[in-house]
Structure formats: C-alpha cells, structure tokens
Amino acid sequence: MNTDEGTQVKNAQSSKPRMNRIPNDEMAKVMRNPWDPLHSSDWDECIPTTICLRRIQREISSMLKESPPGMFIDTDPDNITKIHALIIGPSDTPYENGFFYFIIRCPPNYPFQPPRCRFMTTANSTVRMNPNLYQNGKVCVSILGTMTGPSWAPTLTLESLILSIQSLLSENPYHNAPGFTKERRLGDSKAYNETLKHETLRVAVCEMLETTNVVPQQLREIMIKHFLKFYDFYIDECNKNIDKDGQQMIDPFNKNCGLFQYSSLLTRLQQLKYELESNKCCNEEEQKSDFDINQDISSSINIASDRLSDCSIIADEKVFDNERKVNHNQDEVTEEHANDIQSSEKNLLI
C-alpha cells in the first residue's frame, strides 16, 4: 500500500466529530449498552465519512434488487445509517412464518467498525426468542462483538450480518447457547421448541400485526401479504397443539414462562384475518372509487370536448349556409341590377 492509499484508509476509519457535547445521561446509556443502535448518541456526534455513505448506499441498493429468501430491509427516511430489517422464520423451524424485526445502525466510519443491532420482537422486553436474542434486544453474534468468535471485517456487509442472524433461527435453537451442545435434561430441546412455536405465533405473528406502526409501512405490507398467504398454516398449528392449553411452557433461558394458550391465539388469528381483509377491501374500494371518479372526470371532459366539437361543426355549417345564402342573394341582386341597366339602355335608344 502506498502513502496516499494509507492516508485515505486512515481518514476513512476516523470520522469527523461534531462540536455538540453529549449529555451525561445519554453517554451513560451508551456505556451500559454499547451494542444498542437506539442509544448511539456517540455516533450522532460524528459525521459519516464519504466511504461510509457510499458503501451503505451500494449495499442497500444490492439488497433491494435481490436479497436472500425471507430477508427484507427498508431504510430510515431521516438517517441512511439506520436500517430496518425483517426476517421471516425459516421453514421446518419453531420460528416458521414468524416476523422478526431488527434495527441496525452503521457507525460513521463503516465498514471499518461493526454495526449495532437490536432485536425488536420481544413483547416489550418480556420474551427471549432465542438463546442469542435477549429480552432487552441484545443480539449475540460474534461479528457484532457481542460474543466470542470471528470478529467484524471491512469485507463483511449488511447482508452478511442479517444472514448470520437468520442462521440463529434454526431447527434446534436450544443448542445455540454456549455449553448447551448437549441437553442438560432429557427432552429440554423439544420442550423449548414447543414453547418457541407458541411464542412465535403469539409475539412474532399476532402482536407484530395487531400493533400498527411497529415496522415501516413497506415491511408491514410484506407481513400482511405473507400472513394472508399462510393463514391456513397458522390455524393448523393452533389446532394441532390446542390440547396443550393450560400447560406450563418450558424455557431453560427464561424462567418467567406462561401457559400455552392456543385457543386464544386461534381467536386472535381469525380476528386478524377479518380486520386485514376488511382493510384491504376498503383500500381497494377507495382505489376503485378514485379510479371511477377519474374515469367520470375523463368521460365528462371527453363529452364536453365532443359537444364543443359538435357545436363547432354546427356553427361552421350555419356560417357556411349563411354565407351561401348571402352569396345567392348577392347574385340575385346583381342579376336584377344588370337587367335594370339593360332595360334603361333600351329605353334611351328608343
């Protein structure tokens, strides 16, 4: 690497600080949760480098054109370094067809420093959906620097990060936890999966769709479309497990588990379908009404234009007819006048 290249990289790795002072309480939050994108006042005080902005734009553009199955992103309208990510639970896992929402924030000197990421589908910080996805939103992935393992490298991308998180939503997530490669108690992994299936329906489907403005509108529309498409799957899951109602759920990583409530979930899912389809019909009716109004306006304009054209033709015909009559009258007058002159000339000769 020559001197100029080394200088460029060095400048890219350091972002220019703003002059505003960070309040002590905000800085304390950053220090307590250095992984949290929602408490990034230290980054707010720095201007993103040109390399950072260009890299983020390129990666977002690439993902919007073609992203891996089950992964969707949307940018924040006020901050390009803030990305909203939605992962749909993979098939044949306890997370199947659930909606898992994450907020990602890129540092001002990205990609030379890892992003920060927060898991948002936690039912107000009460549910730990995975050994690596905590109730408080912390995402434990080594490339984020939140657990031991391979660290972040500038060659990694936002897609790399989301793929790493997606891999956590596995067939047997019990074994994701350090030291849990084998079951502590026989049957724990299966029991944990049963709990996650229930909580996926309760938190990652019902609550995610019942609460509006949880995710950006573009991601919400993806969720609604997927929900209606796989509605029968959700209902089948409830019906297959409804005999568990009232039994205690088991979660080795969260002692405050509740009871299975598939009957309640069944009712909520049915209500959701009704409301979402009703809203869809209303929106379609509004669009149809707007279309009809536009069609009526267009038709009225066309009719008025045709009438004007007809009036113009009629007027032209009347003008032509009048001109023809005038010309005819003028010819008759001229002929009479000529006859009078001839008669006068004959009288003079006599």
UniProtKB/TrEMBL annotation:
**Which Pfam family would be a valid example here?**
UQ_con
The organism sits in which domain of life?
Eukaryota
Q: Does the keyword Transferase apply?
A: yes
GO terms, biological process? apoptotic process; negative regulation of apoptotic process
One GO cellular component term: nucleus
Q: What is its EC number?
A: 2.3.2.23
What UniProt keywords apply to this chain's record, in alphabetical order? Apoptosis, ATP-binding, Cytoplasm, Nucleotide-binding, Nucleus, Transferase, Ubl conjugation pathway
Primary residence: cytoplasm
Positions with biased composition (Polar residues): 1-17, 340-350
Quote one Gene Ontology molecular function term.
Answer: ubiquitin conjugating enzyme activity
| PROSITE patterns noted in UniProt | UBC_2 (PS50127)
Keyword Ribosomal protein assigned to the entry: answer is no
Region span, Disordered: 1-21, 331-350
* Localization per record: Cytoplasm; Nucleus
| SMART domains reported in the protein's UniProt record | UBCc
The record ties this protein, via InterPro entries, to: UBC, UBQ-conjugating_enzyme/RWD
Q: Which residues form the UBC core domain?
A: 51-205
This protein is called Ubiquitin-conjugating enzyme E2 Z
